[in-house]
Design goal:
With 264 residues, the protein is of the alpha/beta class. It has two domains: 9-187 and 229-255, Rossmann fold (3-Layer(aba) Sandwich), CATH 3.40.50.720; 191-227, no CATH class. The chain has helices at residues 18-29, 41-54, 70-79, 103-131, 152-169, 190-200, 210-218, 230-241, and strands spanning 9-12, 33-38, 61-64, 85-88, 134-139, 177-184, 252-255. Strands 3-2-1-4-5-6-7 form a seven-stranded parallel sheet, sandwiched between helices. Strand 5 (134-139), helix 5 (152-169) and strand 6 (177-184) form a beta-alpha-beta unit. Helix 1 packs parallel to helix 2 and helix 4 (103-131) runs parallel beside helix 5 (152-169). It is globular and about 55 Å long.
């Protein structure tokens, strides 16, 4: 399917690794000029190099910044004042007992996973509305609608993403701008790979069985019984970013491998 994205500009937050990196590469493959964001210059430049090799006709740019910090956000917005696609992917997660979640941790997760994306949407949405063209996409999680209890501070912020996207979609009524959320299930990112290493390194179980054991014992509701690959999430996000997906508005789109047991 022709996505019709050639020549558009996208900011993908947290795109130096994981799902964000896959989204950046997926958009670039469709001719999008991607602004790659991460906190470490070497990681950002590595993604830009990969884009230049895979999609040489595009013009990727670097936005080395910690977007949870207001001053860093302002610098990125000043350097890139007009974009067509905003993918609010940046986020942090950490399994922990509810009793260990301090007020400072609640605040950190709220600022990083919610307020940063809100600030970027607030900055870029007016321009999209004026041009009557644009996409704002939040990357949430199945934890938004099915909290596991393993990380209440994370689940709360992902639920907020759904609510915020729905509220912002009300501002786009009757136009060509859309705001939606994509909810991935458990995905094999670098962070999850590190988590598996921590969980199983001393277990005696062969590494080839770590994923299947994790799914069987920690994600038993998954229908596919494997971790989703970042590229799979990226393909859905690219579609949602395209003109082909203009009928989605305020939607919470699940790609969770059947992990959520409800119909809705």
């Amino acid at each position: 399917m022709e996505m019709g994205l050639t020549g558009q500009r996208a900011l993908v937050t947290g795109s130096s690794k994981g799902i964000g990196k896959a989204i950046a590469l997926g958009l670039a493959a469709e001719g999008v000029d991607v602004i790659v964001n991460g906190r470490h210059a070497d990681e950002v430049e590595a993604v830009i190099a990969a884009i230049r090799q895979a999609a040489p006709a595009t013009n990727p740019q670097a936005a080395v910044a910690d977007l949870s910090r207001a001053e860093d956000r302002e610098a990125v917005i000043a350097a890139h004042p007009d974009i067509d696609i905003l993918v609010n992917n940046m986020g942090i997660f950490e399994p922990m007992s509810y009793w260990d979640i301090t007020p400072a941790i609640w605040q950190k997760f709220f600022e990083t996973n919610v307020l940063a994306g809100d600030a970027l949407a607030r900055a870029y949405l007016p321009g999209m509305l004026n041009r009557d063209q644009g996409r704002v996409i939040f990357i949430a999680s199945e934890e938004a609608i099915m909290p596991s209890g393993e990380m209440a501070q994370y689940s709360m912020t992902k639920t907020m993403n759904l609510s915020l996207a729905k509220s912002l979609s009300k501002l786009t009524r009757g136009g060509q701008v859309t705001v939606n959320t994509v909810m991935p299930g458990s995905t094999l990112t670098e962070g999850v790979a590190d988590m598996l290493q921590t969980m199983y390194a001393d277990s005696g179980l062969p590494q080839s069985q770590w994923e299947s054991d994790f799914m069987a014992h920690h994600r038993p509701l998954s229908q596919i019984q494997r971790l989703i690959r970042p590229e799979e999430i990226a393909r859905l996000v690219v579609f949602v970013a395209s003109p082909q997906a203009g009928a989605f508005s305020g939607a919470a789109l699940r790609m969770d491998g059947g992990l959520v047991p409800t119909i809705f």
